[in-house]
Amino acid sequence: MAKGENQKLKMLYLVKIFTEYTDDQHSLTMQEIIKKLSSYDVSADRKTLYLDFEELEHFGLDIIKEKIGRNTYYHLGKRQFELPELKLLVDSVQAAKFITDKKSKALIKKLENLVSIYETRQLQRQVVISGRVKTPNKLIYNNVDTIYSAIADSKQISFHYFQWDLKGNPVLRHNGALYQVSPWCLMWDDEYYYLVAYDTEADKIKHYRVDKMKDLRVVETRREGQEAFKGFNMAKYSKAVFGMFGGEETCVTLECSNDKAGIIIDRFGKDVTLIPIDENTFCVHVDVIPSSQFLGWIMSLGAGIKITGPDKVVQQMQNEVKRLAEQYLK
User: Distance of CA 263 to CAs 226, 295, 305, Å?
Assistant: First the structure.
């Protein structure tokens, strides 16, 4: 048998065939594999293919052989990612607001390459990106990479920070002045990426939306804030802030009806202590930043939950209720 022009690529094409054209529901006979190799200008016979399969299995490919009637079928079994895992990743890419629409489609296309052409259709049926709120900031990937590099090298970063005006145009904050902070970690909250950093000038921990940063670069200044971040608990921090608005953390007491127990545990975790008041109600102490977003969250839960302490937070809620009444009861 004459050798094909791509004979040296035979093993690579075999991997391609098994990856793209077989899965647990789709197999190929030896003759079908030989035919597909021929389409890539690679010649093969049964005897050499048996040896090739053994080499691929030794390399780590899970090639499964199954006898059905008079024919023997082959397919790729275990893969690096299972189809349900890839579906979760596709859903995450679609839902992430910090990923642009164009980049979402590109990432999903790459994920499709990890399954067979038949399973790709199952992933494609999940792709419903159009119409979702996505960031227009195309630089977010570079921003994330730059931040991680700065953290790894223990360096500070500088950037411009912006907000949107009524016409949808970015407007620099602080009169266009550069922000310079010491990055410590990134967190994902409410489908946005946030940088958690130490502001030397303010001597406090702050957070910033990564998709609202521009002109981000690493500064050749050693990172600061070691003391501030000593014992820093990211999980506790993310539970304390609502809508990622800053402020002073406060221990707030809530009085709740028993049907609100699940909501409290979902938000603050199973370690929170629910203290019974009577058969129908309980109280709980939670560490939060009592921003307007936190007050709004309490209101959204309706009857059966109220803030009972401390007095300054109760007063905040009273002021907010009064403001809303004046705004809508005119």
Answer: 35, 15, 11
Q: C-alpha distances in angstroms, 180 versus 20, 218, 230? A: 48, 10, 21
Residues 184-217 as b/e (b if ≥16 CB within 10 A, e otherwise) read bbbbeeeebbbbbbbbbeeeebebbbbbbbeebe
Angle between helix axes 30-39 and 10-21 (nearest 10 degrees) is 120
Contact 76, 64 (CB under 8 A): yes
Furthest-apart CA atoms within the chain: distance in Å: 91
| SS3 per-residue string spanning 199-218 | ECCCCEEEEEEHHHEEEEEE
pLDDT values of the chain reduced to their tens digit, one per residue, 330 residues? 557 788 999 999 999 999 999 999 999 999 999 999 999 999 999 999 999 999 999 999 999 999 999 999 999 999 988 888 888 888 778 777 777 778 888 888 899 999 999 988 777 654 444 445 566 666 777 888 899 899 999 999 999 998 877 666 788 998 999 999 999 988 877 667 889 999 999 998 888 988 889 999 999 999 999 998 888 877 777 766 655 456 678 899 999 999 899 888 878 877 889 999 999 999 999 988 888 888 988 999 999 999 999 999 999 999 999 999 988 886
Q: What is the DSSP letter of 23?
A: B
> Is 108:84 a contact under the CB 8 Å cutoff?
no
Residue type, 20: E
Work out whether strand 170-172 and strand 71-76 pair parallel, antiparallel, or are unpaired. Answer: unpaired
Q: Are 7 and 42 a contacting pair, CB within 8 Å?
A: yes
pTM of the model: 0.56
Counting every residue, how long is the chain? 330
Q: Which residues of 106-124 are buried (b: 16+ CB within 10 A; e: fewer)?
A: ebbeebbebbbeebbeebe
Contact criterion met (CB below 8 Å) for 207 and 246 = yes
According to DSSP, the residues that pair with 187 across neighbouring strands are 194
Residue given tokens 């900031």 in the structure block: 137
**Side chain identity at residue 82, one-letter code:** E
